Amino acid sequence: MRIEDNLKQIIDLYSKNDVVLSETELSELAIRIRRELHRFPEVGWLTMRTTVLVAELLERIGYQVIVGEEILPRKEAVDAPEQIQSEHQWKRCKSSLPEKWYEKWKSLIGNLGGVIASYDSGIPGETIAYRFDMDALPLQESQEPDHVPMQKGFSSCLPGKFHGCGHDGHTAIGLCVARLFMEHREQLTGKLLFIFQPAEEGVRGAKSYCTHWQFGKIDKLFCCHIGFAPEDTFVAGTGGFLATTKLDVEFTGKAAHAGLCPERGRNALLAAADAMLRMQEIPKPEGKTARLNAGTLQGGQARNIIAAHAKMQMETRGEDTEINQYMCRQAKKILAASAEKYRVTYTVTEKGESDSADSSEEMSRHIMRVAQKQGNFSDYLLHKNFGASDDGAEFMHMVQQNGGEAAYVLLGTKQVGHHHEAEFDFSEDVLRKGYEVLFDAGMKYIETVEE
C-alpha cells in the first residue's frame, strides 16, 4: 500500500455510491481508513481533520451531516479548547486535506470536532444509532522498528500524539457500517443515526452531547470497543463501567524568599502535596470498587522561592455513580483541609464526568445470536464487566432513561501492549469482524419485512 496515495484511494473507493463493494474491497477500505486516521491523530475536541474526512465521506453517500459547533457550541462543551488552539489545529491539518474540503468544512465545524450523520428512510420505524469515539491520546507512539505501524509506514506523524486506544479502528468500523446501510437503503425502515464523538479521553464529549441532545429519541444504540476482551472473543453486552469525575485543582499561596524569610510565604505546593498523600487514605467502601488518582502535580517557580502556585490533575472512579460521588466528596473535603492547613486558597474545576451503565439484556442477546450465526470469532460471551471508564456509558444511560435499549460490544483481538501504552497496536482483521456484526445486528432491527 502506498501511504501517500491512501486518502485518494479512500475517497475513490468509499464514494462509489451505487456500487456494492466486495468483501475484499470493504475490508481493504476499512484498513486504509484506519491507517489514514492513525497517521494523523487528534486529541480531545480538536479532531478537525478526522471530522472533515468522516463528514465528507458520509455526505457523499447520502447522509445528512451535522458537524462541530452545529452540534454543540463551544461554550457548551466541557473543557472546551481556546479558539487559538482550534485555529492552530486547523493550520496544522490544512496541508494534508484537499483544499476544497478544507474550505467547505472549516466554517461549519468551527472550534470543535464531531459528526452526527442521519438517514431517514421515509418509512415509519425505529431510530437505530451507532456511537463511535474518534480522539487520540497525548502519548508518544513507539518508535521501535518492530512496531507494525512503523514497519508499514503509517505511524503517527505528530510527535506526542498517538491512537493508543483503538479509536482509529472504531471510526473506520463506523464508516464501513454506514456504507453498508447505504448499499441496502431500499430495504430500510425508520431512521439511522451515526454519532462520531470527540473527547472521549477524559470523558468530556458524551457528557456534553447528552446534556444538549437535540436529535430525538433513540430506540436502539450500539457502542463498541476493540480489545478489553480475550483474543478473538466477542462480547455482546458490556457493563461494569466505572463512574468517574475528572478534576483540576489549583492552589494559590504567596511567594517569599526561601532562605531569608520563608515565614512570609504560603506554600501552595506543600498544600497540594499534602492533599495528594492524604487522599490515598480515603477509606474505600467494603466490597466495592473505588479509585482515586492524582495524575499530575505541578508548582513553584524556583528552588529558592516559596511556591505560590500549584496545579493538580486528578480523578475519582467508582463501580456506580454513588460510589464515585462518595470518593469525590471525600477528596474535596481533604482539598479544603489541606488548603486551610497551609493558609492557601484553592479552586476545583470539573473537567469531565461519566456515569456507570450496563448493556440492555434483550438487545445483547439479539447481538449475540447474530454474532454466533456469523461465526467470525472463536469464543462468545453474553456479558463482561469493562473494569474501566468510557463515556459511551453516558449515551447508554440517556437512551435507556428514555425507554430505549443500548448495548456496548467488545471486539477481542490479538494486540500488542495494553491500551494507553506506547506499543499498543491491534490486528486489523478485527475491523471486518466489527463492521459485519454491527451492521447485521442493526439491519435486523430496521429492514423491511416482506408480507
Radius of gyration: 23 Å
Low-confidence stretches: none
Query: How many β-strand runs?
Result: 16
Largest beta-sheet details: 8 strands, mixed
Strand content: 15-25%
Helix residue percentage: 25-40%
Instruction: Give the SSE order as H and E letters.
Output: HHHEHHHEEHHEHEEEEHEEHEHEEHEEEH
- Write down the overall geometry: globular
Pairing-aware structural class of the strands and helices? alpha/beta
* Order of strands in the sheet with most strands: 1-2-4-3-5-14-6-12
Give the helices and strands, then pairings.
Blueprint (H helix, E strand, L loop, with lengths): L5 H9 L8 H17 L8 H13 L3 E4 H4 L11 H12 L4 H11 L5 E6 L6 E7 L14 H4 L15 H17 L7 E7 L7 H7 L8 E7 L6 E3 L2 E2 L3 E10 L15 H12 L10 E10 L9 E10 L2 H21 L3 E10 L6 H14 L4 E3 L2 E2 L6 H10 L3 E7 L3 E2 L8 E2 L2 H18 L5
Parallel strand pairs: 3-4, 3-5, 5-14, 6-12, 7-13
Antiparallel strand pairs: 1-2, 2-4, 6-14, 8-10, 8-11, 9-10, 15-16
Helix pairs in contact: 1-2, 2-8, 3-6, 8-14, 10-11, 12-14
Characteristics:
4-stranded antiparallel beta sheet; 451 residues; alpha/beta; 8-stranded mixed beta sheet
Question: Would you mind describing this structure in some detail?
Answer:
- The protein is 37% helix and 20% strand.
- The protein is an alpha/beta fold and 451 residues long.
- A hairpin with an 8-residue loop joins strand 15 and strand 16.
Task: Give a brief rundown of this model.
This protein is an alpha/beta fold and 451 residues long. The chain has 14 helices and 16 strands. The chain has helices spanning 6-14, 23-39, 48-60, 68-71, 83-94, 99-109, 148-151, 167-183, 205-211, 268-279, 321-341, 361-374, 392-401, 429-446, and strands at residues 64-67, 115-120, 127-133, 191-197, 220-226, 233-235, 238-239, 243-252, 290-299, 309-318, 345-354, 379-381, 384-385, 405-411, 415-416, 425-426.
